[in-house]
Specification:
There is one protein chain. With 168 residues, the protein is of the alpha+beta class. It is globular. Bound molecules: zinc ion (2 copies). One zinc ion (ZN) binds next to loops.
């Protein structure tokens, strides 16, 4: 694959992805909404080993949430870059930090039970009321993400049906 690049708004932080971005979802949890100042955050999963800082890692600020997730963001311009959840193999990339996110296509909405009351979901993507369980995250992290994504995307795009459980 061709490497993908990204960084923060002010340019002090730069990173490189050496693997394909895995499943992408829109998270409507209260934490993402407040941190991002938006209706939801769009997050892509990848194995932690596929991410490396190429510039300015010392400029990265960190915040550990009560749930144990470590957020990495620029200490100068405050752009969010990525989160490390408790699952050690997994990294959650903030899709908006990519230089080129034109090929990104979310496949689901998570945590819709805490969706902003003023925001209406207008697409046909599957909706999950809460987050995947830790077991589901762990399973997802161990799968070949690219093939998983392809499989899920085909399922979602093919019949457009809503699903009740995350498909992994
Ligand atoms: Zn910055
Ligand atoms: Zn969230």
């Amino acid at each position: 694959m061709t490497a993908q690049f990204g960084g923060c708004r002010c340019g002090r932080l730069r990173y490189e992805l050496t693997v394909e971005l895995g499943p992408v979802f829109n998270c409507h949890c209260p934490f993402c909404r407040q941190i991002h100042g938006a209706a939801f955050a769009t997050i892509g999963l990848l194995p932690k080993s596929g991410f490396r800082w190429s510039e300015g890692s010392a400029e990265a600020a960190r915040f550990t949430t009560p749930g144990g997730t470590v957020r990495h963001f620029c200490g100068h311009c405050a752009s969010p870059i990525c989160n490390h959840p408790l699952e050690p193999e997994l990294l959650c990339l903030i899709v908006a930090s990519l230089d080129d996110d034109s090929g990104v296509m979310p496949w689901a909405h998570f945590n819709t039970e805490s969706k902003a009351p003023w925001f209406s979901i207008q697409d046909e993507l599957p909706q999950f009321e809460s987050n995947p369980t830790p077991e589901a995250w762990a399973l997802l992290a161990r799968r070949p993400l690219h093939s998983t994504t392809t499989c899920i995307m085909r399922g979602v795009a093919g019949d457009g049906q809503r699903v009740d459980q995350p498909p992994w």
